[in-house]
Amino acid sequence: MIELHSLLLEIMVLLGVWLCLTVLQQDRRTPGRKTFALATGAWMIWCFGGLAGARGWLSPPTAIQIAHVGVMLIAPLWLGLAAQTARLEIARRVPWFPLPLAAPGLAIIALLFSERWSGLFLIAGEDGSNLKGPLWTVMVVYGFGLALAGCAILVSAAIRWKQPGEEARRIAIGIAPLITFVGSGLYFTGFWQLPADPTPLLLGISFLTLHGGIFAGGLLQPLAISQHALIQQLPVGIVLTDRGGGVVDINRVAERRLGIVASAAIGRNFDAVIDAAGLGVDFEVTPVMSAGSEAGQIVLLDPADHKAPSASEIFAAEAPTASPSTLDESPSTLDD
What we know:
There is one protein chain. The chain has 14 helices and six strands. With about 325 residues, it is an alpha+beta fold.
């Protein structure tokens, strides 16, 4: 069972890396992007501490100390993420407000690495056993309070921002994190007997749920549609490539125009896809800039068919013209 738990912690660390990378690639204007990445980082520290202890990479006391660094930071960051998700006024005016909430946890972290005072919170034995100090209960109550407040904000936001057909999904996204804290509470109170703390694993489910709900057309997105779904609705042929020219997405119009299915095009170089089509397809490439550098390209197929008329063309089309007969009938001022 312990071996399975270690394997799951390894998977959670890899999942955390993926979540951080995908979130940091989101639009910088997306609220909660950095806070989500920081909260995921704290969760990864927690998982790594547990993994290092289970695998014997570090001594049990050191592994427990590292794990609690993540434990102390995750609750205030969770609350901050929820406030930014719900677009609370405090999150807009004071986006760094989770930092003061993390101050007690930072003080506990300092105690953990102090041999003289660490016993006030936790004494980790060489055999992996823990002797909880007087501050343990205080911090558990404090952390659970912050986390539950964050969940309440998420649920409130999901109920408030109703959208036809989306109510159940949004409320489910808000309630999902509660599973983590219910499971953790059952474990620490002894009602759920397990050989290891399940909280890091349950947090992985919560972060994955929030990631899909927040950053793929969920609570934080005013337009509840993904990039792929958006280009599929366009009536023109669109191909998206990475900075090296590799195809990363293609819509149905482009598939029909090039005579290729998406599964065969994605991953191939765009030039190779065009050459294979052999149809003499015209296209226009527009660079996609991110943070001052080119991140990819948007390729528009058959641009001439969709080109907007220029100002001179519009003027020429709208300008009145005189017919030859009208000119002949016009009186001459010279005869007068």
